[in-house]
Amino acid sequence: MSTENEGTAAPTPPAAPSAPPVPVATPTPEPVAPADAVPPAAAPVDMGKAPAAADQGYAAGPVPAEPVTQQLPPTPAGDPYGAPAAEPYGAPAAPPAAHGAEAWPPPPPVVPAYGAGGHDGANGAGAWGAPPVGAPQPKPKGRGGLIAAVLAAALLAGGVGGGIGYKLADGGLDGSGSTTVSSGETPKDLKREPGSIAGLAAKALPSVVTIEAQGGDGEGGTGTGFVYDQEGRILTNNHVVASAANGGKLSATFSNGKKYDAEVVGRAQGYDVAVLKLKNPPSGLNPLQLGDSDKVAVGDTTIAIGAPFGLSNTVTTGIVSAKNRPVASGDGASNKNSYMSALQTDASINPGNSGGPLLDGRGAVIGINSAIQSAGNGGFGGGQAGSIGLGFAIPINQAKNVAEQLIKTGKPTYPVIGVSVDLQSKTDGAKISEQGAAANELVDPAGPAGKAGLKPGDVITQLGDKTIDSGPTLISEIWTYKPGETVKLTYLRGGKPTTVDITLGSRVGDK
Questions:
Q1: Is residue 119 annotated as a catalytic residue, yes or no?
Q2: Which residues partner with 67 through β-bridges?
Q3: What is the pTM of this model?
Q4: Which residue out of 2, 243, 329, 354 is catalytically annotated?
Q5: Which candidate in 207, 272, 300, 360 is catalytic?
């Protein structure tokens, strides 16, 4: 799966002039042309490249394109909105019309003059109510004809007026005795329930920050994070802060506009999780409540908060559309991938949402928004793609475990089975590599898999109760466990299945 991370509606054309009333007097009004309507121009959004695959030290070869997603790139620094507004459907923007030039949609015809002698054409031909040029001219009517017409109209109006007057005197048009039409009064205090989307968003926004990362080489961008504890620690994605991790500058801006310098506590590239700490945190911080991502159900409400394209404090909603989605995501700038057994949501998330919280219907964090699937190579026109309703979040249970490791030691610890997986294999499972290194490097004899009897060429098809269909799926599922846990593993050798118990080993730090 390839992931990546929108125009202004066309103006409503002016309404055509309504048919004029029957002329009574002879004066001819001058035609009035409506003002030109020029639709606002939209500019295309630039898009990053497709992600590159990675070797995590236990897998050989790049990740196949099919299951690989791209991390939401941070919005480039320097632009308050991150990027210009995306052009609808990739169509070219319409330049503003020059003064006096024709605009689209074209203005309606000039309001015609009422009666002969109008301004439509040099001779007045074509004006509303005027006879066509060359047609027999009607005989002029005498004064009596005009008076008769006026009297007839007066009599008709008098008859209608009398009818309405009688109806009103008889109790009103609706029989209620009142001629006043009133609507319900707007409540003086519009209150929203605490459990509503608006109520949950209002409670969470003060604990969500917009992160600005600036590397020593000038590279950087904008992402999101949220308050993890009262000591001023912030939880976010590793790829949001990676550019500033070594000698760069980091800052976090709260929804009230207050900005604080920050530093990296620890980061895990493989998990795509990082912990920051505000250098001078304010008092009274309210950490977001953490939910239980294992208990999330497909169809549950989701609320995503972040800074898509630099637009801080943006709230979008959706549902959990899938669970345990194996995702290998890359930032497009390196050959290193991150792996997760992700929560999938259709809540709109885009570049700049990375690191932001995915909340459930109670306002508790169930995930960290990290990557999206995009259509093709950047969508219509090849520009930078946005949300198509396929977003992926790191489950909060996993992210919490990683965060605690980083706070205690500054380094992540990964569970491993001690094999190198062939990520280019087309088999229905995760195939242990057969070449590229010595046999004892492809399967560590002293590692969990080696002790259980696995060999190069074996195809792993199940881990615990999860079916394994590829190398990235295997890695994603292994990383949902902790080192030291025992799990059942099923593999094929010569087409024959074998199930063994494996106690997971550990690896400290990113290679």
A1: no
A2: none
A3: 0.66
A4: 354
A5: 272
The residue annotated as part of the active site, out of 2, 207, 239, 300, is 239
Q: Verify whether residue 354 is a known catalytic residue.
A: yes
DSSP character string of 133-161: TTSPPPPPP-HHHHHHHHHHHHHHHHHHH
Q: What is the pLDDT along the chain (511 residues), one digit of tens a residue?
A: 434 333 333 344 444 444 444 444 444 445 444 444 434 433 333 333 333 333 333 333 333 434 446 677 666 654 444 333 333 333 333 343 333 333 334 444 433 333 333 333 333 333 343 444 444 555 554 444 433 333 334 334 444 444 434 343 444 445 555 566 666 676 677 788 888 999 999 999 999 999 999 987 778 889 999 999 999 999 999 999 998 988 899 999 999 999 999 999 999 999 999 999 999 999 999 999 999 999 999 999 999 999 999 999 999 999 999 999 999 887 656 668 899 999 999 999 999 999 999 999 999 999 999 999 877 544 444 456 678 889 999 999 999 999 999 999 999 999 999 999 998 888 899 999 998 888 889 999 999 999 999 999 999 999 999 999 999 999 999 999 999 999 999 999 999 999 999 999 999 998 7
Active site residue 99: no
Can the peptide bond before residue 105 be classed as cis, meaning omega within 30 degrees of 0? yes
- Provide the token pair at 155: 């009599």
Tell me the two tokens of residue 389: 């309703």
The beta-carbon contacts of 332-336 under 8 Å, at least 24 apart in sequence, are: 332/48, 332/49, 332/50, 332/51, 332/52, 332/70, 332/71, 332/73, 333/48, 334/52, 334/54, 335/52, 335/53, 335/54, 335/55, 335/62, 336/54, 336/56, 336/269
How, if at all, do strands 459-463 and 430-431 pair? antiparallel
| Residues 487, 502: Cα–Cα separation, whole Å | 5
